[in-house]
Amino acid sequence: MLTDRQRMILNAIVDDYIRSAEPVGSRSISKRSDVGFSPATIRNEMSDLEELGFLEQPHTSAGRVPSIKGYRYYVDHLIQLGGASPTEMTKFRSYFAERMTEREQILQQAANILANMTNYTSIALGPESINHSLKHFQLVPLNAETAVAIVVTSTGHVENRMISLPPGVSVTDLEKTVNILNAKLAGIPMMRVTSKLYSEIGDELSRYVDHYEQVLSMLDHALPVVDEHEHRVFLGGATNMLTQPEFKDVDKVKTILDLLEETPTLSKMLSSTQSGIQVRIGTENKHAAINDCSVITATYAVNGQSLGTIGILGPTRMDYAKVIGLLDVVSRDMAALLSRWYV
Amino acid sequence: MLTDRQRMILNAIVDDYIRSAEPVGSRSISKRSDVGFSPATIRNEMSDLEELGFLEQPHTSAGRVPSIKGYRYYVDHLIQLGGASPTEMTKFRSYFAERMTEREQILQQAANILANMTNYTSIALGPESINHSLKHFQLVPLNAETAVAIVVTSTGHVENRMISLPPGVSVTDLEKTVNILNAKLAGIPMMRVTSKLYSEIGDELSRYVDHYEQVLSMLDHALPVVDEHEHRVFLGGATNMLTQPEFKDVDKVKTILDLLEETPTLSKMLSSTQSGIQVRIGTENKHAAINDCSVITATYAVNGQSLGTIGILGPTRMDYAKVIGLLDVVSRDMAALLSRWYV
DNA sequence: GATTAGCACTCGACGACAATGAGTGCTAAC
DNA sequence: GTTAGCACTCATTGTCGTCGAGTGCTAATC
């Protein structure tokens, strides 16, 4: 569809624009050492590329800027990944080297590192709890009326909630209840725990425990609600958005930052069935607030099972090559670190 | 020090400026129904107030703006609190009505509500763990090599970390260890848990458990590090900063938002020994980044014991009366909600 | 036929300049 | 002590001309 020369010129324009954030003129392309054509020739080609929809002109007497379609072509056909640079790699690995004891820490750390190294905003989606199963249940009474209910999943995820103890239930009854739950529910997927509670545990409880209705309702409150799209969301470098010249307008940046605070929206936006690295450019994003941003996401997986997503949000004029290379490395390293939890 | 008329005029200027964000001229003050003087008289008084340091002039032919000293005088002597309006109160209470099962939820919710109702940024510091004591310790093995260690404090706070199990330690040994820990450490302040571990638990372990050195080192990793200044920090409405006309400059707002992301700094900034409501205006704040912001904080307490702080960050031109009234109510309500955990 | 030099043209950015008007300080009258 | 009147200041706004980067087109060149 495009001639070699057109591809070369498009590539040069995108590269230039990514670096400078200024519309690219024919002269500056012509001056590049690897281009042997005069400005006039470049102009003709640029005119053609604009007609084909790969370039845009902010106004008549300005240079050209890549269009969404132009970026798309660049990402799909022209980009030279070249892998993450070794210095970057070691820098990144050293950040990641500290021993991390909590999974949340790993995700937050990954988000921070990515934001730091790219100067864009990064988003990390934690593993969804939907596939986990229950490993252990525990009640820790704090006083006569309240207790903490703790649920540990097969993946080492710990949830805790505060509950009111039903009056008149003895400590031994509570212990029995916990034992029954662990015996009956261990290994059951979190999704089905609540239904199992009523279908099977109820009968069992009624046999051994007084006031079993109240105990059952207490347990209902004690167990976490599993939402299909519930991801924990970690942000890194949200304010990096402010350093991009295209977002020097406060109102524009506000709509973006507001979007970043809506974790459910982010969660939906990033979660994807498709594995590997995915690039969404400008209006390819569904949310109007980021129609002049691009989002690059990578899923991370352990044992072939996709656990979550990390992504970078930046202007459409983002350094795709660098970000893609980095995300590739980071997602692998994250998976490696997380594999501890998912053996 | 100030005449009644000067106080009245200062009050009018501060009120006006808080509403309009524009320098206040003598004419607009004179027009107010409760002021019976001509612009010329007001001008003379304004000139005096400026000489005394309560007002400032952005440039010769502009109106006056309150200085830090002016705001300070306003807050200390002129402000009319009038309590939170009933409609606001019910609105706020209805937000807060949902049953909340996690303490983190309460703090985050409080921060969100405050930000929403004020259009400023709010910061909530969670209860410090320094005063808590250990309630319950638990090890949940996930597989042969790893386990989740869970610590519940007397206040229902749950911490969990991932640890590697030392090879060669049997399940029964782990169980014994957990039992010993609970027997010996329950009720001990979290601060002293680690030292107790070595001074007392070590001997005990060596009597009942094989490989007790490895087990001890594992426990050391399993117990959370208690930092004196460790607060959990919850932010609400960070982007509200962007709606304030004084922060339409992107660079200025970036330094503020960056500060908001440094949780340790925030924690230090807000934590205060002084109980009740505290107002820090402009340069009274130590951090240069917020030298044209004001911070209003309120501590919340249960049974006379201060648990944490909630605060509002806004421009020096903030609606002090409204914010102080609101913080007063919110801090009380939060304390009431949290009292469940601290009986 | 492809490439390029030459040139007129477009249009945003920038600085100079005047007009506007909100607000002041001072003086003299009330 | 208060106020009307007035000259003065200065940020803001709008207009205008200049500048220059960049284009599109035409004709000459390879």
TrEMBL record, chains A, B:
The keyword Transcription applies. InterPro entries: GAF-like_dom_sf, HrcA, HrcA_C, WH-like_DNA-bd_sf, WH_DNA-bd_sf, WHTH_HrcA_DNA-bd, WHTH_transcript_rep_HrcA_IDD. Pfam families: HrcA, WHD_HrcA. SUPFAM superfamilies: GAF domain-like, Winged helix' DNA-binding domain. Residues 104-324 form the Heat-inducible transcription repressor HrcA C-terminal domain. The keyword Repressor applies. Belongs to the HrcA family. HAMAP family: HrcA (MF_00081). Negative regulator of class I heat shock genes (grpE-dnaK-dnaJ and groELS operons). Prevents heat-shock induction of these operons. This is Heat-inducible transcription repressor HrcA. It comes from Paenibacillus terricola. The gene is hrcA.
